[in-house]
Amino acid sequence: MANNIEKNVDRSIAIYCRVSTDEQAREGVSLDEQQVRLKAYCRAMGWDLTPLVFVDDGYSAKSTDRPQLNKLLAKVKAGELSKIMVTKLDRMSRRLLDLLKMIDLFQEHDVSFISISESFDTNTPSGRLTLQVLGAVAEFERERIRERVFENMIHAAKGGKWLTQSPYGYRLFDKELVIHEEEAKIVKRVYEAYLDKGMGCFAVAKMLNKEGIPSRFNKEWSLRSVKLMLTNPAYKGTLVWNRVDSSKKNRKVKDESEWVSLDECLPVIIDEDKWEEVQKRVNGNQIAPRAVSSPHLLGGLLKCGNCGSGMSIGWSGSKNNRYRVYRCSANKNKGTCTSKQYRADDVEQWFKEGLKRLVDSLDETLVPMIIEQQMEKDLSYIQNRIEVARKRYGRKVEAYSADLITIEDLKLEKDRMEQDIELLNGLKLIQEDQFDIEKIKKEIQKKTSKVLESLDVLTIEDAKSLIYTFVDNTKVLDYGSIVITIKV
Fold first, then answer.
1. Domain, as residue range, for 11
2. How confident is residue 334, by pLDDT bands cut at 50, 70 and 90?
3. Could you tell me if 204 and 252 are in contact, meaning their C-beta atoms sit under 8 angstroms apart?
4. Taking a C-beta distance cutoff of 8 angstroms, is the pair 347, 328 a contact?
5. For residues 130 and 294, what is the distance between their CA atoms, to the nearest angstrom?
């Protein structure tokens, strides 16, 4: 506390005076009179420091962009002031939100704000109480503004208008998106690399940076920027607004049920089916970037057959004879699993042999099992989508109750939810005999052969990317016993 007092003594007192031309004509407000009153108050309070004077002559309170006010705020940020005085609160601003923002800044830098007409001093209990009341009123005003903005944004979104900065691959003309052909080619490459080549977001960003392909503002690509591109529904023609909560310092993606979306209203760069397939991979079990780029073939892919935990790479053996091993992470980190470790070279060889046997053993019993497994995954994915649709509809009911949307908007949302439910029911009706088993068998053989060939000619990193497009996970059960779960 002593240090704070000493710091305040070294800082200056400031007085701020403002008058607009209209006020002078209407009320006869004098800048000289303001200065006299404020300096007299300083003397009455026993503050011997000569105050710094900031005067904005002929400036309205509607805007905070005033020369002397800007200089005053700069001194606050520089820590040069201890008190700021005005004759009335409206000398600073007539807008409550602007005034509270400035007071927040003053408090952040330990500066007292005093208005002598209203006996308002943020350094006193009564002043802080008044500030809390004003803050409550301002919060109410902010909520009212947010509701009006939200309603206007819904109206604009339903008209197909793009409401923010255009995403990569597009340009904005008259609030409508138009495809930028060169960037659209890059977008398609990113989706292809991620879905068809099995590259992760980190690997895609690395590829683009290596080729010298800049992002929109000539910045380098990052894992985050690639993931944002892969999850942006604009590329499949869907306009989505209210997706991100920007009210806090750290922006956060809202629950999908809160989004305002409109399908088939934007120019399409990525086919909808392909976009949905990418979302399945993005929302599924992801391999960490470090696992993808590690020099170990099954890193991030190998699971413990005993407890299901991931198996990490380690080293074993004597000082002169060290060798890689895969070891259950639950065993290593928690001691909760009793599985043993396995030589990495042996496990990777079992994996390759397992793929070879898979090519030779695809028969009319194995393929239906694989189809059933894939159907369960698809069913789980669509059930999650249905739950999102139901939450979104529930939110629209609340919006209708609050007179924010019309009954027509509510009916559209209900139709959309029912279409999703119909899609789910349609999936349930699919029978195994409706699949072309011979075609699926050939496709699996083709993918397996491609992976096997890649293991001998590609780098470990590239080979792993290809494996991830085909293999869901691998479990080691015992010495020489391994299970490979593939994707259809």
1. 2-139
2. confident
3. no
4. no
5. 60
Q: Residue 235 pLDDT > 90, yes or no?
A: yes
pTM of the model: 0.45
Domain count, the chain: 2
Phi, psi at 47, each rounded to 5°: -90, 105
Instruction: Supply the pLDDT for residue 373.
Output: 62
User: Averaged over 403-417, what is the pLDDT?
Assistant: 79
State the CATH number of the domain containing residue 269. Answer: 3.90.1750.20
pLDDT bracket for residue 3 (50, 70, 90) = very low
Is 222 among the residues known to form the active site?
no
For the segment 190-210, what is each residue's pLDDT rounded down to a tens digit?
999 888 777 778 888 888 999
Are 116 and 227 in the same domain?
no
Residue 461: inside a domain, yes or no? no
Same domain, 40 and 131: yes
* Claim to verify: residue 135 and residue 6 sit in the same structural domain: yes
| Of 12 and 465, more confident | 12
Is the pLDDT confidence value at 323 over 80?
Answer: yes
> CATH no. for residue 112?
3.40.50.1390
Active-site choice (20, 257, 261, 454):
20
Distance CA 162, CA 239 (A): 8
Give the pLDDT confidence of 268-318 residue by residue, as tens digits: 999 988 898 888 777 764 555 555 555 677 777 788 888 888 888 888 888
Q: Mean pLDDT: which of 67-76, 331-340, 391-400 is highest?
A: 67-76
Q: List Cβ neighbours of 385 (8 Å cut-off, separation of 6 or more).
A: 420
Is residue 130 located within the same domain as residue 173?
Answer: no
